[in-house]
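This is your field. Please look over both lines of this record.
***
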Amino acid sequence: MGPRDFEFLKDFLQGRSGLVITPDKKYLIDTRLLPVVHSHGLKTIPDVIEILRCGENEILAVDVTEAMTTNESLFFRDDSPFDLFRQQILPMLLERRKDKRKFRIWCAACSSGQEPYSLAMILHQEQNRLAGWKAEIVATDISHDILERARKAIFTQFEVQRGLPVEMLLKHFVQDGDYWQLSDQIRNMVRFEYLNLLESIKSVGKFDVIFCRNVLIYFDLDTKRSVLEGLRSALVNDGALFLGGSESTMGICEDFIPVPDVRGVYRKTECIDSVAG
């Protein structure tokens, strides 16, 4: 693939999904797009790019976008955000929402579902405290294929060994050969929907907690700012925003400030009370 084709694909992906592909990541193009080449009966990646230039094959455009934006996910990834949710954010919600007895959680760019299912398992652990409450988990992604996989909730042995405690594996999963099927009880606690973070997010409504972890790192500055503005509009005034440990709003968006002494969690600037306080 020549420089001209690379520049076109880079601009195409950034426009469709916000994903920034740098020259040192060219290897990802071959790894992820060759299956798309074969599935469409084509011979080379430049063949794909030539069709994309014409702008008349939306199915191919979607397949290319989904292939390049599908990222890995782990159960209870990095541990500390989930410990913080269980130990501080959930008690805060139970106190501040005790009159309405309901709250909503959004997992943006949820990939194959490990993050929202991890949260669902935490809520299941707290079912006695949550008796009479309505807790909604909405998980979104730009990839239709990955959302379908997340809804099925069938994971490989390798996937369930990455971060999932053994006791939760045995409690919530049933083994079927080389795969593990998540229980309907946990599956039904999560609703999966298609959403492109670069487009309007008004359809998903307002949330008390938003997880958008390890997503901003793939965007350029302007796209990060646009996404954060969208997240701000979706977060209630005293809500909590979880970003990845290496991500920050500093120098990007003044709508959020970090919660003191809590890495990776942010509150809206206009909220006087500390989220974790």
Q: What stands out?
A: Residues 3-69 form one domain.
